[in-house]
Amino acid sequence: xxxxxxxxxxxxxxxxxxxxxxxxxxxxxxxxxxxxxxxxxxxxxxxxxxxxxxxxxxxxxxxxxxxxxxxxxxxxxxxxxxxxxxxxxxxxxxxxxxxxxxxxxxxxx
Amino acid sequence: xxxxxxxxxxxxxxxxxxxxxxxxxxxxxxxxxxxxxxxxxxxxxxxxxxxxxxxxxxxxxxxxxxxxxxxxxxxxxxxxxxxxxxxxxxxxxxxxxxxxxxxxxxxxxxxxx
Lengths: 109, 113
Fold this sequence. Notes:
Low-confidence stretches of chain B: none
Largest interface: A-B, 20 and 21 residues
Strand content of chain B: over 45%
Number of strands of chain B: 10
Order of helices and strands of chain A: EEEEEEEEEEEE
Distance between the termini of chain A: 41 Å
Number of helices of chain B: 0
Radius of gyration of chain A: 13 Å
Oligomer: heterodimer
Number of strands of chain A: 12
Structural class of chain B: mainly beta
Low-confidence stretches of chain A: none
Mean pLDDT of chain B: 94
Structural class of chain A: mainly beta
Strand content of chain A: over 45%
């Protein structure tokens, strides 16, 4: 099966700072890759996805590019807001999701 | 449209009791999944249903856990003789087809005293 490793948190940033969360995967094939986000007190929401190599997923100012050569899917946002404070999960899908451990991000005003 | 719904949202039970957790997937989604989110183990896959095929039970942690999906729609996860280590948030997800994007319900928080 697949496995996913993502950057350990917690991460604390000031508003308008640049955010990057590293994610790498191991897989026998070419899984679809996802970032899910869990805001405080809420359920898991899809943030963005990429289904094949070199695809870029984007949403709400966040981006991640599926890099087959480095088996990575790093999440980036150029200017974070307080409302981006959440736990972020990287996941690989070959019908069941394999999740990373999650990265807690706190953005201070 | 309606998303994935789960009930109850919270369940407190005593050690040794049985519990049933319910999931209503998005209408028309053929694939249904159960995951568990706990502090020590993160997000773990439990079981997967696809249409009328035999479920993939490879993630169930013990034979105290079972699940069924009736009529290709609603699913029930049953935990028998609950233990304190079963305390977690149980998440249900559904997707239109296998390997498609999975959409998650709000979860059921289970506390075993």
